[in-house]
Amino acid sequence: MSTQAKLYQMDGSESGTIDLPSIFRTPYRYDVIHKAYVNLLSHSYQRQGRYPMAGEVVSAESRNTGLGIARIARARGEGFSRAGQAAGVASIRQGRVAHPPESWKNIYKKVNYKEKQLALCSAIAATARKDLVERRGHRVSNISSFPIIVSDDVEDISKTKDLLKLLTALGLKDELHRLDISRKPRSGTARRRGRQGRSAVSAIIIISSDMTSAVKQDNASDNDTRTSTKNKDNRYKNILKLSGSIRGIDIKQIKDLSVLDFAPGSKPIRLTIFSESAIKELSNIKKPAMQRIIEMMVQSK
Predict the structure, then answer these.
(1) Are residues 267 and 165 in the same domain?
(2) Residues 96 and 212 in one domain
(3) I need a surface site. Which of 52, 145, 154, 194 has the fewest CB within 10 A?
(4) What residues have CB less than 8 Å from 299, skipping those under 6 apart?
């Protein structure tokens, strides 16, 4: 794998190359990514349960044999519609659920810290492989250099039209068309609950999370420092607000990254666009122990 990647400007032109951090040398481990995805996804599940007496709050008894009817329990009484109807058991109208979900069931799946870190590093490294990106369904035939790295001007974007213009300049016009035709409306209960439809997942834009690095390099006064920090904080808020403004396009900071972002549906790997500062920040994502694990895996190949 190449240790350098092309650096693109906002208009899609090349402005040079940038060295990739060592994290991009992490071997591709689909099994670890899949396990981490499944376990981390369980952390967002909500426990479900049913009222233990649901379907059983009724006076019902069996009439035994000799009447030419089934021996299933029936509601007692006469002179009203419910009388004589099967009740209090499963597989009948207004009956109980045979095996209802239980709120005390353990649905939280733990994942080892180093295993989770390895999955994240492997997922980030996989973004540099065009074959994996195309295998997931992304239309990136017009792009030759992976990962896609854009100058820090991308972090100054505050309008959706500018973001759309950038994606088109990078050669993702076919990818945006795939998003338009992937919209599928829902019906029934999901639609009534506000989930009107579903569409494909497209690119994720990664920006740096160190908002104070540029400020620390300046030797300005305290007042200037506070003003610069506030302006940069507002800049990040503006770009982050655009996440989801284009259906299927997400924007995240380095500190908020997870395997769930790179492998939706546990299917690696998602099309990823990095800012220049984000690439430089990736060199600090791994702990010393994790670094040794990666080096051992690389040497064993």
Answers:
(1) yes
(2) no
(3) 194
(4) none
Say whether pTM exceeds 0.85.
no
Angstrom distance (rounded) from CA 6 to CA 18: 6
Q: Which domain holds residue 153?
A: 4-45+111-300
Q: Which two tokens stand for residue 32?
A: 């670890």
Q: Please name the residues in contact with 188: beta carbons below 8 A apart, sequence gap of 6 or more.
A: none
144 and 38 within one domain: yes
pLDDT at residue 212, rounded to an integer: 41
Walking along the chain (301 residues) 10 residues at a time, the average pLDDT comes out as: 86 90 90 96 94 91 91 92 92 92 94 91 93 93 91 91 93 92 91 90 89 41 50 67 90 92 92 93 65 64 60
Contacts of 191 (CB under 8 A, 6+ apart): 185
Pairing state of beta strands 197-198 and 184-185?
Answer: antiparallel
Q: How many domains does the chain have?
A: 2
Query: Beta strands of the chain (E only): which ranges?
Result: 4-8, 14-19, 60-61, 74-75, 148-150, 184-185, 197-198, 204-207, 250-253, 272-275
- Please report the pLDDT score of residue 217 as a whole number: 40
225 in the same domain as 97 = no
Are 280 and 156 in contact, with CB atoms under 8 Å apart?
no
Which residues are bridge partners to 275 per DSSP? 150
